[in-house]
Specification:
mainly alpha, elongated
Length: 273
């Protein structure tokens, strides 16, 4: 009968090392399981405490983003539709179909915002003037001029045109007060606003104020030639020389030109020979 092998110190050391490794592996697995369980408990606790608010926040964020995308797309589609309507109205105006143009512009003025609506109202006012309805034109111009959301250049244009549409029924001083901001050289509406203001001064008998203003318009090279010619004549009638700059320039050129005494006389051909 064979006897079991006796354990030597070497074999005892190997067995103890394997046992230690096995125990270490078991301990690592146990710690990992404990750590996973702890994390799961923490996640479940966090979800129970904050899960519903977090989910609600995510849903609201997605809904807001989707709403913004829809709004952006809707606004783009509306702008394109408004632009198409405006172009069709322009075509109707060119074809002298003013009623159809006014109907399209009325819809555009009620649906569009800011600049588009203001442009539609300005065109409607122009159509009203062509139809002889100064009251309707003045009302539309007034809406644009009094709308703070409209760009300032369009508001200024509406103000000047409103005065022009109702000039005959306005008091001279009211015309002067309304157009005062536009009667300085350099202003885009200086020409037309200055002319109307000048005639208002004449109605008040203030030729001393009307004449210089007409002369300023006549000297402004940025104004149309027809307006400059008209205001030059009026200024002249009022005793204000609106072409003094031209005369001065001509005299300076005459002074700079050599006199007849300074120019040598041509040598006759016979003397030259």
């Amino acid at each position: 009968m064979a006897l079991p092998p006796s354990e030597t110190p070497k074999t005892k050391g190997a067995l103890s090392e394997k046992a230690a490794q096995r125990k270490a592996a078991q301990d690592e697995v146990f710690l990992r399981e404990v750590d996973d369980a702890l994390r799961q408990d923490q996640f479940e606790g966090f979800f129970k405490r904050y899960g519903i608010p977090v989910i609600a926040l995510i849903v609201l964020g997605l809904a807001a983003f989707g709403g913004w995308l829809w709004w952006h797309s809707d606004q783009k589609a509306k702008r394109e539709a408004h632009a198409e309507t405006f172009i069709k109205a322009l075509d109707d105006v060119e074809a002298s179909n003013l009623k159809a143009a006014d109907d399209k512009l009325a819809v555009l003025a009620s649906e569009a915002n800011d600049g588009s609506a203001a442009s539609a109202k300005l065109m409607r006012a122009g159509i009203a003037l062509q139809n002889g309805d100064q009251k309707a034109a003045a009302s539309l111009y007034g809406e644009v001029a009094g709308d703070d959301s409209v760009p300032q250049p369009l508001r200024d244009l509406a103000t000047v045109r409103s005065v022009a549409a109702t000039y005959e029924t306005m008091k001279p001083q009211d015309v002067i007060d309304r157009l005062k901001p536009y009667t300085q050289p350099g202003n885009p509406f200086f020409g037309i606003a200055g002319e109307m203001t000048g005639f208002a001064y004449l109605k008040q008998g203030k030729e001393n104020l009307a004449g210089p203003l007409f002369a300023k318009i006549a000297r402004d090279e940025s104004q149309p030639d027809s307006l400059r010619s008209r205001t030059r004549q009026i200024a002249g009638v009022l005793g204000v020389d609106a072409i003094e700059d031209v005369i001065e320039d001509k005299s300076q050129r005459d002074d700079a030109a050599p006199s007849a005494e300074m120019v040598p006389a041509p040598v006759p051909e016979a003397a030259a020979d």
